Amino acid sequence: MGGQHDNKLFHPGEQVPNSGDYREIGEKGTTIETPTTVHLKAGQKFPTAANQDRVWMRVPQPRR
């Protein structure tokens, strides 16, 4: 597990590097009160965030 994109922040309109769940967070990596979580496939574009100060981060997958 783990890879070069772990903990990386993605901006709306960027291409999704790996399929999985992504959560909206504050631009500086801060948590927000009502985050949106989406499931995206590699190659799709990140959707517009709820406001311009938010970005997307991959939701960590549970260890097996």
Short overview:
This protein is mostly beta strands and 64 residues long. The chain is built from no helices and 4 strands.
What's the arrangement of secondary structure elements?
Layout: E1 9-10, E2 20-26, E3 37-40, E4 54-58
Antiparallel strand pairs: 1-4, 2-3, 2-4
Q: What features would you describe in this structure?
A:
With 64 residues, the chain is mostly beta strands. The protein has one domain (9-58). Helices cover 0% and strands 28% of the residues. The protein contains no helices and 4 strands. The radius of gyration is 11 Å and the shape is globular. Residues 1-64 are annotated as: Disordered. This is YjzC family protein. Residues 1-11 have a biased composition (Basic and acidic residues).
Question: What structural keywords apply?
Answer:
64 residues; mainly beta; 4-stranded antiparallel β-sheet; YjzC family protein; YjzC
Low-confidence stretches: none
Anisotropy-based shape: globular
Q: What value does the average pLDDT take?
A: 87
**Cα distance, first to last residue?**
10 Å
Instruction: Give the percentage of residues in beta strands.
Output: 25-35%
Number of helical segments?
A: 0
Spell out the helices and strands N to C: EEEE
The count of β-strands is 4
Strand order of the largest sheet: 1-4-2-3
Task: Tally the structural domains.
Answer: 1
Rg, Cα atoms, Å? 11 Å
Structural classification: mainly beta
Measured as a percent range, the helix fraction is under 10%
Main sheet, how many strands, which sense, barrel? 4 strands, antiparallel
InterPro entries: YjzC
Pfam families: YjzC
Region (Disordered): 1-64
Protein name: YjzC family protein
